[in-house]
Structures are given as structure tokens and as C-alpha cells.
Write a structure and sequence with these properties.
It is a single chain. Helix content is about 45%, strand content about 10%. It has about 180 residues and is mainly alpha-helical. A two-stranded antiparallel sheet has the order 1-2. Strand 1 and strand 2 (about 50-55) form a beta hairpin. The longest helix is centred in the first third of the chain and has 32 residues, at about 1-35. The termini are far apart.
Amino acid sequence: MLIRALDFLLSLLGLLAGLPFLLVLYLVGLFDTGKPLFFQQRVGRQQQPFILVKFRTMPVNTESVASHLVGGSAVTSYGRFLRRTKLDELPQLWNVLKGEMSLVGPRPCLFNQHELIDARARLGVYVARPGVTGLAQTTGIDMSTPELLAQTDAKMLHGLTLGGYFRYLFRTLLGQGKGDGTFR
């Protein structure tokens, strides 16, 4: 209950305080891809679908697969900047505000990532809301290693405390981890 209250408060403050910055990123994205926001169905809590919103980092017609399966040339130069700085994740504050996500939790995957979905289900990861960041993201583990990712998510959730919640947030803000990579 406390985590949900923190998620709501921090995402609301982030959206309100960051609105001018979000608008600038949106406008630059208009020139980059023509459609700066990206909407995609993802696997949420209890494996329920929800629509994730991010800043677009690839052209509009790019195939909807996990980032590590897409060629590195598919990411635009502005998209590389957004990914490197993790600014592409900022619109997810809306998902957090709505209660579909938490600031800290396992990254939501696509419904076609069957190996990851099965591993997470087996380890009980879907009891939690998916998150913007977490242990895997701050230690450089991405969706290219589904079993390791599911194990890392379960480990994080099993030991998640209020202190850990803030630790993952600060690690992310300090740029720890590499984010989702693209196939090179």
C-alpha cells in the first residue's frame, strides 16, 4: 500500500514538474519520427494486458519485437540519445499514475516473449506490478537472457523493501545499468 502511494505521488510530481521537458522531447520526436509516442500492449500484473507508453526510438514501421532482436540500425540517432539517457521511459509515469505499473518492478515484456513469460509465471513474478526500473535494469540484465531475467526479477521482489525501492530509483537516476540493448 505504501509503495502504491509512493508510486502515485512520485509519478504525479514527475509528470507535473517534468511537463515542459516532456513537451520538448515530444516536439523533437515529431521531427525525428513524426509520431513521438509509442504505444504497445505489454504483460502486466497477473499477466493482464495493458498499453505501455514510451517515447519512440525507432521508425514507425519497425517490427514489434523485443529490443535485443531488432537491428541496431533501426534505432534513430535521437532514439539512441533517448535510450542512453533512459528518457524514452519518462512517459511511463502515466502508466505508474494509472496503477498499471510501479516505479520499481520487473520490466513488462511483450506477449510474444513466451520463454520469459513462462519463467516469470513459474517464479511468481506476476504477483507484482511491472516496473519502470529494478534490479535487472540497474545491473545490466536485459530480455535477451529470459531465465536469468526472471530469476533476477523474483530475487528483487522477494527482498524488496522501502530502502530497496529508493535504491533502485537512485541507481537508475545515476545511470547505472545499460538498459535494453539492440542486436548489433
